[in-house]
Structures are given as C-alpha cells and as structure tokens.
Amino acid sequence: MTTHAGRHVLVTGGTSGIGAGIARAFQSAGARVLVTGLTAAEADAARADGLDASPLDVSDDAAVSAFAGRLGRQLSTLDALVNCAGMIRRRDEHEVDVFAQVVDVNLTGTMRMCAACRPLLAKQGGAIVNTASMYSFFGAGHAPGYGASKGGVAQLTKALAVAYAPQKIRVNAVAPGWIRTAITQPVYSDPARSKPILDRTPLGRWGEPEDVAGPVLFLCSPAAAFVTGAILPVDGGYLVG
Fold it and tell me: Which of 15, 118, 167, 187 has CA atoms 20 to 30 A from the CA of 204?
C-alpha cells in the first residue's frame, strides 16, 4: 500500500461507510487523519473507535468557514482532502425541497470544502479526491437529486482540476459502484434486488469500502503526480458489464 507517513489528511463523511474505510486506510499508511461527521454523536462514536473526529455540516457556510479556520490554526499544511460527506433520499427527491437539500450537501458541500481548504492545500501542492458515483454516468430515476449532484461532482472535479492547477493542487474523483455500506444495506441484503447487480458486475461481487480506499490513496500519492481531472470508476466493472 502507498505510504502516507506524516501526511495530514481530512476526510469529510469519514465517520461511516466509504469515508470510514478511506480514513482507516490512510491511518494504516501512516497519515495523520481527521474525519468529520454530520453530528456530534457520530463524531463521538468515531473517536471512541480511534479516529480523530469532529462534527461538521457541509451544507452550513458558517460552519465550514469556522472549521477551515480552526484547521488552518492547527496545521501548517493539508496534504489531502477527501470529500465523502453525502446523502440520498431516493424517491423523496422528486420533491423540490428534498432535491435541493441533496444537491446542497453532495455537490455544493463538496465545493464549500474545496474552496475552504484551498489555501492550506496550496501551501505545498496537496490533492483533492471527490466522491462521484456510477450515477455520474447513468440516470437515477429513483433519486434525481442524488444523480444530478453526482453528475455535478464529476464536472466540478474537472473544473477545479483546471482552476487549481496553478497552485499545484490536483483534483480527481472516484466513482464507486455498488459498495456494501449502511446506505445500501436494504439492497444487498435482499437477494431479489442484489442478483441483477451481481449479474451485471463482471467481478461478481459487491464492493467493500476498502475497495474504494486503495484508489483514493493512490490518487493522493506522489505516484499520481501527473493525474488530475480524472473520474475513476471503482465498480467491479459495472459500467462496462
């Protein structure tokens, strides 16, 4: 595994699911990792599990600004920002207010964090990895807010890769497929719903958070020094199956 010894890494949404898997992988690679979760209870649970955690609502402008200010006083540089904070409300997203909330968290929240952390990342050319989705490529009829936000994350990643390049900040994204987390539990635990997914996935299994972590560590490492603006599917081949 790529080493990140001594590096400072921030993972939003890192108290559970894919974000927690990424945070653990960075820890194992020697990084000093800070994670955020939506609530104080989530942060407390992550701290009890050995992570340095803080509550943060990425849809709150003032909270993000204050958090970034505290981070700037604590750290001289930030080597990597991984944006994993997100939500899905599925069929409720056909209601305009719910649609707007999902887009605000998943897309605008990602932009808030990128903009707020940019000065720290610029000090020595850090890396950003955003979380896109297979729904960055497919239509999500059951979750239009989620699909729109993840399509936006892919385009935002490309835009910021261009905009931040003069400061030597690389911006990439991973696009997870079907990963076993609490969010997807109703699907993978139902054989009737899981079978079509497995049938289409060439590697024939559900992904685990750790499957996403490896590509993220690579994208944040010197091994990816000439990679920016990439959207990397991590889906067991689902997109091409």
Answer: 15
